[in-house]
Specification:
The chain is mainly alpha-helical and about 475 residues long. About 70% of the residues lie in helices and about 0% in strands. It is built from 20 helices and no strands. α7 runs antiparallel to α15.
Length: about 475
């Protein structure tokens, strides 16, 4: 069967609106299907949402001018989405998930470190998006005259039900649903932009003498915030490319995955910047309710539906990846059971945000902390991909206690050492509101935040140096080096 024929083939184990039969096991060659264009539509659908718009608000609220904020969005997303695109390359080669690919660079046992961190990340994203979608549904219920205190739990239950419903069906259903969601949400978010613009004095913002202008250091901090969002998706990337044929053009994979996310993030974050300007620079404690200042009543209901739909669309991949992450930890449960555990975690998170009382602050802190581990992990698996020329053994990937990727007692120390060195580097070079290291505040006060940049450079470089001559690493290669 040709690659083109396989790409067009609908397989019984992965059909839209049927429960997917595969989990973390490698997809057999005869069941590979789909094309990179599917990734473009999927990443657009998953990222046109209100949480991304809030990221744009965070950027402008940091004190940047309009053009500084625009440049931060473009540059940060260019870097972050490129990392996501490169992180999608392993899926067709291994036929398995991103979490399982960690076994190659960290060892079967050592991979539990990034797997656990990936699971926490996916669970957190799932909970954050659920909170925003729940708030939008609550506002919708209030419009209908249902504003009793218990309706918050009803709204959360309905949102979770919608998210779990799609995640249960799995890969093909997510790809199919996100395609249509992308079109609907893009149109509705364009409507938000249309109604916000009249409340902004564009000429004054662009050319006024009183326009804000932040330092280069502040701009670098916001660049890191922007980049952390797409880099935060890297541990999901191969989950949605693993059904492609192993011979799929890697350039198309990078372009479609990274390009789809880049379009969606820039689109929503630029709307967020303009929204922040219209609000006077700050979002406040109610990220959804602020929209009522600018939208006509007749458009408010479609927008609230869009926020709900966007939260669900973003959360379906979160829930799906989190369920696969639980299985990758060798927990003896089914993918369906794992989704139930994820729902319980979200309820607990919702209670925590109610007690904490500041969702906006929780979200901003989460973005800062998340980059500490995702950047080093992504750098290591990308470096490993190119070092081994994209050649993996799917059989050995699943072989616990032996095989090429068991290394020494299940631990590949070059990967583990590089991972921790990358995390330490992120912390040492951090200069954000979440954590500012003494090095950055006392000796490099004008350098801004360099956490993700240094974390990726140091972890990838150290992994290469420690691995390239390592005897265990050489034995794991499918090709021979001199």
């Amino acid at each position: 069967m040709t690659v083109q024929a396989m790409n067009q083939k609908a397989v019984a184990t992965d059909q839209a609106w049927s429960i997917e039969q595969h989990a973390i096991d490698p997809i057999p060659p005869g069941e590979r299907h789909g094309s990179p264009v599917d990734l473009f539509r999927m990443w657009v659908g998953a990222n046109v949402n209100y949480v991304v718009l809030i990221t744009g608000v965070v950027v402008y609220a940091a004190g940047l001018s309009f053009w500084q904020a625009i440049y931060a969005v473009l540059a940060g997303n260019l870097v972050g989405c490129l990392v996501l695109g490169l992180s999608s390359l392993m899926g067709p080669k291994t036929g398995s998930t991103s979490a399982m690919t960690s076994r190659v660079a960290f060892g079967q046992l050592g991979s539990f470190l990034p797997k656990a961190a990936s699971l926490v990340s996916a669970l957190s994203w799932f909970s954050i998006n659920s909170v925003v979608a729940t708030d939008a549904l609550l506002d919708l219920l209030k419009i209908a005259g249902l504003d009793q205190p218990f309706m918050m739990w009803v709204a959360l239950g309905l949102v979770l039900a919608g998210e779990i419903f799609l995640a249960v069906f799995g890969h093909a259903t997510i790809i199919a649903a996100e395609k249509w969601i992308a079109l609907i949400l893009s149109a509705l978010f364009a409507g938000i932009l249309y109604f916000i613009l009249p409340h902004i004095e564009i000429h004054q913002i662009l050319f006024g003498t009183a326009a804000k202008h932040a330092s280069a250091g502040t701009w670098l901090v916001t660049l890191g915030v922007v980049a952390s969002y797409p880099i935060g998706w890297t541990n999901y990337a191969s989950d949605y490319s693993r059904y492609f044929s192993a011979g799929t053009d890697p350039k198309k994979i990078v372009l479609c995955a990274g390009g789809g996310q880049f379009f969606a993030l820039c689109f929503c974050e630029i709307i967020g910047i303009l929204f922040a300007i219209a609000l006077g620079g700050q979002l406040g404690s109610d990220p959804v309710g602020q929209l009522t200042q600018f939208l006509p009543n007749w458009f408010l209901i479609p927008v609230l539906i869009a926020i709900i739909l966007g939260g669900i669309a973003a959360n379906v991949p979160n829930g799906y990846t989190a369920s696969l992450g639980l299985l990758a930890l060798r927990i003896p449960i089914t993918r369906i059971t794992s989704l139930g555990i994820i729902s319980l975690f979200t309820v607990c998170f919702r209670v925590a945000t109610m007690i904490y009382g500041n969702f906006f602050g929780v979200y901003e802190s989460f973005l800062s902390y998340m980059i500490f581990w995702t950047a080093p992990w992504a750098a290591i698996i990308i470096a490993d991909y190119f070092m081994r020329k994209g050649e993996y053994s799917s059989t050995d990937l699943m072989q616990w206690g032996g095989g090429r990727y068991w290394y020494g007692n299940g631990l590949f120390w070059p990967g583990i050492s590089a991972f921790f060195a990358g995390i330490v580097s992120c912390v040492v070079f951090s200069n954000s509101s979440t954590y500012a290291s003494p090095l950055m505040t006392q000796y490099l006060p004008d350098a801004g935040d360099l956490s993700f940049e240094m974390g990726m450079i140091i972890s990838a470089s150290l992994y290469y140096v420690l691995s390239i001559k390592n005897a265990h690493y050489k034995k794991s290669l499918l090709h021979r080096t001199t």
